[in-house]
Amino acid sequence: MTAETSRRVGPVAADLSQIVKAYDVRGVVPDQWDEGLAELFGAAFVQVTDAGAIVIGHDMRPSSPGLAAAFARGATARGADVTLIGLCSTDQLYFASGHLGLPGAMFTASHNPAQYNGIKMCRAGAAPVGQDTGLSDIRALVERWSDEGAPEPAAEPGTVTERDTLDEYAAHLLSLVDLSGMRPLKVVVDAGNGMGGHTVPTVLAPLPLTVVPLYFELDGTFPNHEANPLDPANIVDLQQRVLAEQADLGLAFDGDADRCFVVDERGEGVSPSAITALVAARELAKHPGGTVIHNLITSWSVPEVVREMGGTPVRTRVGHSFIKEEMARSGAIFGGEHSAHYYFRDFWNADTGMLAALHVLAALGSADVPLSALVHQYDRYHGSGEINSTVDDQAARLAAVRAAFASRPGVTIDELDGLTVTSADWWFNLRPSNTEPLLRLNVETRDPATLAPLRDEVLSLVRTTA
Fold first, then answer.
1. Which EC numbers does the record give (predicted)?
2. Nearest of 121, 146, 139 to residue 51 by alpha carbon
3. C-alpha–C-alpha distance, residues 88 and 62, integer Å
């Protein structure tokens, strides 16, 4: 690394606290970080992981190739050999990390707007790097080197090689799901101009599918809609196209294609909790008696289905680092979140929306009913979805809600992640955002008539100005 690098990144480093999040690095380029800072992150990553070799991939954002190359320069300057796999989805990077046995770095900002970019880092075998597992140490080194200048290069710099892992990634995924004998299906896939446009054609090519592509052109400016399928506004085009094509289902991927959202033949969104339950049932059929992880915002349906299938459900906090840590600790076979992240033991405990999509296709392809009927057994209750409220004092609003419900008969309260209030007929969770002045509310009820009054009561307490 050069003196120019150190001089260039100095002012940016003052705001490092704004870009190093709980699980990754993410911020506006070049205002909050740039290639000079990416170079220091590459050097710090190698030092903290003590890696002799790493693998690097990137998404389709305009800034991604340059940032990935800068990270590689920092890594090789510290003596590590670098394998560049180029354009890939985040789960393709996890595959490369697991398959090659190397720590990895993925350059993406997922569904954030075009001016953002970030780094998702992992140790060998796709083990997560978060605040408590190396990210805080990486940040400390980058801060020090930004102030003092780049570290001395290694006596012998590392090498750089290129490798295309797309075919190997597709073959591995296809080997994990029994897709034999499935009937032909028509599926509309909305890639949102993200990395699904790169991975979907290869992964789905061997299957008896008619694929109707939406926004497969790689374009990190996201000209058609935000690449976040959990926002209902972003699946409108998919819903309309499913109906127009009389398709069997629709799939929507986020920007880095590690999350997958499903739409049924009626154009209705399928709850990620229902997908979690469906995939859990299939994984438990393969691995009888296994443990399944679910975060505390997934539906009551998930632990019910897991128990009915002879498995053990384990409830955990929201967030991939918690899910992955619990999966490793418990030997769980599968994990699911309300945000359409799906984790598989057979995929190094990492999340892959593509593998979840293959399970849905296999289940539907072997059934003689439409998707809406297939998932009905897994969608037993009535949910609000996640509702965000901007608040000035998160702690005060949480305390007000707790006080309002604590004395009610038959109610239990826990604080595993925010505030969860449960009765015999309903539950809700209210939790603060780690990065924004928001409280996030999720409500579920047995009776549909109960949902709106309960939701509105909690929101009135959260949004009061008194």
1. 5.4.2.8
2. 121
3. 14
Mean pLDDT to the nearest integer, 127-148: 94
Token duo for residue 227: 């690449």
Give the model's pLDDT for residue 435.
66
Same fold, 3-164 and 382-462: no
Residues annotated as part of the active site? 110
CATH of 3-164, one of 3.40.50.360, 3.40.50.10240, 3.40.120.10, 3.20.20.70: 3.40.120.10
Those residues whose C-beta lies under 8 Å from the C-beta of residue 374, and which sit 6 or more positions away, are 278, 363, 364, 367
Radius of gyration of the chain from Cα atoms? 22
In the chain, % of residues over pLDDT 70? 96
What CATH architecture is 166-380? 3-Layer(aba) Sandwich (3.40)
- Would you state the pLDDT for residue 13? 46
Instruction: Tell me the pTM.
Output: 0.94
Among 232, 230, 258, 227, smallest CA distance to 114 is for 227
- Beta carbons of 311 and 291 less than 8 angstroms apart: yes
The two tokens of residue 179 are 């897709």
Q: How far apart are CA 336 and CA 351, in angstroms?
A: 9
pLDDT tens for residues 212-233?
A: 999 999 999 999 999 999 899 9
Looking at domain 382-462, its CATH superfamily turns out to be: Alpha-D-phosphohexomutase, C-terminal domain (3.30.310.50)
Q: What is the pLDDT of residue 319?
A: 84
Rounded Cα–Cα distance for residues 61 and 108 (Å): 7
Cα–chain center distance at 381 = 24
Q: Domain-by-domain residue ranges, the chain?
A: 3-164, 166-380, 382-462
pLDDT digits (tens, 9 = 90+) for 292-327: 999 999 999 999 999 999 999 999 999 887 899 899
